[in-house]
Amino acid sequence: MKTRIISAICMVPLVALLYFGSFWLAALCIFVAFVGLREFYQGFEHEDVHPVKMIGYVSIFVLYFLNGFMLYSGRPYNYEMILAWLAASVMAGSLVMFDITKKTPIDAMATIIGIVYIVFFSFHVVLVDQSDYPVMRWLVVITAFGSDIFAYFTGVFFGKHKMCPNLSPKKTIEGFIGGIAGSTLCSGLFGFFFAKELLIHCIILGIFAGIVSVGGDLTASAYKRHMGIKDYGNLIPGHGGIMDRFDSIMFTAPFIYYYIAIVLDHFQLGL
Amino acid sequence: MKTRIISAICMVPLVALLYFGSFWLAALCIFVAFVGLREFYQGFEHEDVHPVKMIGYVSIFVLYFLNGFMLYSGRPYNYEMILAWLAASVMAGSLVMFDITKKTPIDAMATIIGIVYIVFFSFHVVLVDQSDYPVMRWLVVITAFGSDIFAYFTGVFFGKHKMCPNLSPKKTIEGFIGGIAGSTLCSGLFGFFFAKELLIHCIILGIFAGIVSVGGDLTASAYKRHMGIKDYGNLIPGHGGIMDRFDSIMFTAPFIYYYIAIVLDHFQLGL
Fold it and tell me: What single-letter DSSP state applies at residue B240?
């Protein structure tokens, strides 16, 4: 409970950066990618898996450099560049295991998964901000935290049936439903007050990103469980690391971005 | 030696499909992705890692369906769809580990790496074929096999210095240099006779894709070594599986595609 309140206070500067968007939001995402990746890689070391951190850090630099370059080069933004970055990162990660006496393919796989799961996924916050609907960047956070907070309180008051007792023992089915309802409510209110022309999409995203957000939470938990750690770090002492607080956002960000890219932009169903 | 000759004969129908391109080439890539992924996942079972095959198979279906849909939908081809497919595949692969009593994050990581390394990478053959320079699809194969065959013969006749004795004991530095020279020669000849306006690019790709091709070969070897298997399969009895024959292509295909997409298309340096 106390953890959650302190975490909520720590969110204030984050909200400011989200409000400013653009360069400030990109800087925040670089920070989250860097610290999150470091936590993730260090977690693996607990189970004797040794990803090559430097490959991950270079991939962050290259991705945001490419993004900035494309934004200011005067040429149209080219998503093939992002695909090229991904392919190059996977190839670079594969190099790890050529040193076969010291490294295993599991080390290479962990290096690659870290880049895809943390660097690539968190980058979608920036992509939402750069899209035709930058207001939607708020939904990335609203669905993730809305779902989390409402799930917590619904679980505390009404929770009876365990959802996944082995993976995350405190989660209940009642909490899960309450979380989705909360995410939908918060997203709907946000749409109603701040993005009326997108209200229906806010409600749809509230439901589905609320569900996806639980997937992000459970993914981070499963890795932690396997690594044998309770928290990814202690950036905020006693309150976990970046990956403990942003686990849901890793999944809601891509989901909301591709909803915009496919439903609103490609098929123009929103207009 | 005999293996190599028989493999070469088996390449004849492949060359025909490559010649026809388009639908036929896509069908070949689906086949390679399906069989290659199956071999890769089965290899992991030797070391008690259990990827979820069905997620991989569904990802192949979805990717080629999306691709076909975009080609014939009348809307411009949208690379964000491919990014969305990738993100969705990574999320789907993460679901694997929610069943934490039976599955581990390593199973999920193997599921995801299989999709990225085999399905996504081999798909670039199709992307090259659909690009503005479909003739370049030949280079994907010419650089991979040119490098492989010339490396073999240079190694046999001049090989003295081992390149990576622990990972691939037969590879020599002399063979590596001979392979790059061979890849460059074959690509250059191809450019001279069949794509004169792209000759300089064929030579550049001959050099660099020749190097990248060795990376593909070593990556496949490192996985095999870790899995404790000699070959990925026996599709051609006694001559290995799809992943033994197409290991280099997994890396040359993305390299050549992004060369086209970035150097020739985005920056138009070739015109």
Answer: -
**pLDDT mean over A198-217:** 96
pLDDT for residue B108 is more than 90: yes
Task: Pick left, alpha or beta for residue B268 (phi over 0 → left; psi -120 to 50 → alpha; otherwise beta).
Answer: left
Tokens of A53: 């951190």
Cβ-nearest to A261 among B84, B113, B212:
B84
The residue in chain B having the minimum alpha-carbon distance to the alpha carbon of residue A251 is B91
Whole-number Cα distances in Å, A11 to A142, A149, A231, B180, B213: 12, 13, 18, 54, 47
Closest CA to A80 of B62, B254, B22: B254
Rounded to an integer, what is the distance from CA B126 to the centroid of its chain?
Answer: 11
- Scored b (16 or more CB within 10 A) or e, B228-240 reads ebebbbebbeebb
Residue B110 CA: distances (Å) to CA of A166, A266, B47: 22, 32, 12
Label residues B203-218 b or e (16+ Cβ within 10 Å = b): bbbbbbbbbbbbbbbb
Q: Is the dihedral of CA B269, A56, B254, B164 positive or negative?
A: positive
**Distance in angstroms (rounded) separating the CA atoms of residues A140 and A122:** 10
Query: How many CB pairs below 8 Å do chains A and B form together?
Result: 136
Amino acid present at B179: G
Are the CB atoms for B33 and B60 separated by under 8 Å?
yes
CA B96 to chain centre: 26
Most B CBs within 10 Å: which of A98, A119, A164, as the mutation test of the B interface? A98
Query: How close A100 gets to chain B, by Cα (Å)?
Result: 6
CA closest to A259 among chain B residues: B84
ipTM above 0.90, yes or no: yes
B98-115 per-residue burial string, b: 16 or more CB within 10 A, e: under 16? bbbeebbbbbbbbbbbbb
What are the pLDDT digits (tens) for B133-185?
999 999 999 999 999 999 999 999 998 899 888 888 889 999 999 999 999 99
* Segment B86-98, tens digit of pLDDT: 999 999 999 999 9
* Among the listed residues B52, B221, B85, the one whose alpha carbon sits nearest the alpha carbon of residue A108: B221
Nearest residue to A181 via CA among A140, A210, A214: A210
The gap from C-alpha A260 to its chain's centroid, in whole angstroms, comes to 16
CB within 8 Å: B112 and A110: no
Residues of B in contact with A101 (CB under 8 A): 166
For residue A253, how many other CB atoms are within 10 A of its CB?
30
Q: What is the pLDDT of residue A199?
A: 95
* pTM of the complete model: 0.94
User: What are the residues facing A162 on neighbouring strands?
Assistant: A172
- B100: which chain A residues are within 8 Å (Cβ-Cβ)? 164, 166-167, 222, 225
Per the structure block, which two tokens stand in for B10? 């088996």
Q: For residues A3 and A230, what is the distance between their CA atoms, to the nearest angstrom? A: 14
Cα B178 to Cα A102, A121, A254, B210, B211: the distances in Å are 28, 41, 45, 10, 11
